[in-house]
Amino acid sequence: MELRQLKYLVSIAEEGTFTAAAEKLFISQSALSQQVKRMEEELGVPLFDRSRNRLQFTEAGELLHHRARKIIKEVEEAKTAIDDLEGLCRGTLSIGVVQTVNAYLIPRVVSYFSREYPKVKLGIEELSAPLLEEKLYNHELDIGISFNPSVYPDLDFERIFSEQLLMIVNPRHKLAQCSSIEVKGMGEEHLLLLSNGYCTRRIWDAAAREAEVEPNVQIEMNTIDGLLSAIQNNTKVGTVLPALTMEMKAAEGLMGIPLENPSPEREVGILWRKGAYRNKASEKFADVARQQYRQLNEE
């Protein structure tokens, strides 16, 4: 079995059809089908269930697809390691980023990094923290920018910064002029929050439990921009988001108020596979992320 055949299999999975995969690979559909047939003959099992209308892997096909992705990634990592020996910073870097960090920090990081290292192709994927960790663990990402602690024990975390969560409100909200707000006093406040799958929400919920408060959550959303837009047009509700959210354009004119007793905060950093080779490009990207955070914090 050849590496190109494994790449064909991965491409079919990504595109969903033989036709689309063949177009992406710049080969004919018949040539692609022939390569799949050869793999099936070599392995002695079918890789696709052809009895269904929708293209779907068999159990063997799914197993081979999972292994193929890892093999392709390891080959790419080996090539990058050789480039590193020659002092080069090039190749492809796959990065997973949680939404809240992607919204305000990553645009600065990517802008600087692409200017300084134009030979590195970046692939940035916005993901929930659990999915990011899963994809990093399975070699589908090179590094992740997420939160501590991670669920997977085989991932290492390197802190970039910690930040407090703020109550963010319209400037005409009754609490807008407060210098701080005690969490225990927020039981009657109407809140718009990120949904339960987000780390920011889980940190806030933990703070509310500690203060023995049951928040009045009116609406749950899955985008920060959506929350901030809603706050811009509503003087009766607030949201709880990380402090650097206030740097976003969508937060212009809004008021961010520190929370106390407790003061919920989160720790943001770089996630790596434990013991894995760290190529030069990923090390440089991590350095740029730290540098850009420091600059953002000083502005």
From TrEMBL:
InterPro entries: HTH-type_LysR_regulators (IPR050950), LysR_HTH_N (IPR000847), LysR_subst-bd (IPR005119), WH-like_DNA-bd_sf (IPR036388), WH_DNA-bd_sf (IPR036390)
Gene Ontology cellular-component terms listed: cytosol
HTH lysR-type domain sequence ranges: 1-58
Presence of keyword Zinc: no
Keyword field contains Signal: no
Gene3D superfamilies recorded: 3.40.190.290, Winged helix-like DNA-binding domain superfamily/Winged helix DNA-binding domain (1.10.10.10)
CDD domains: PBP2_LTTR_substrate
Single GO MF annotation: DNA-binding transcription factor activity
Keyword annotations of the record: DNA-binding, Transcription, Transcription regulation
Domain of life according to the entry: Bacteria
Record field: transmembrane: none
PANTHER family with a match to the protein in the record: HTH-TYPE TRANSCRIPTIONAL REGULATOR YBHD
Family membership: Belongs to the LysR transcriptional regulatory family.
Protein name in the entry: LysR family transcriptional regulator
Species, as recorded: Fodinibius halophilus
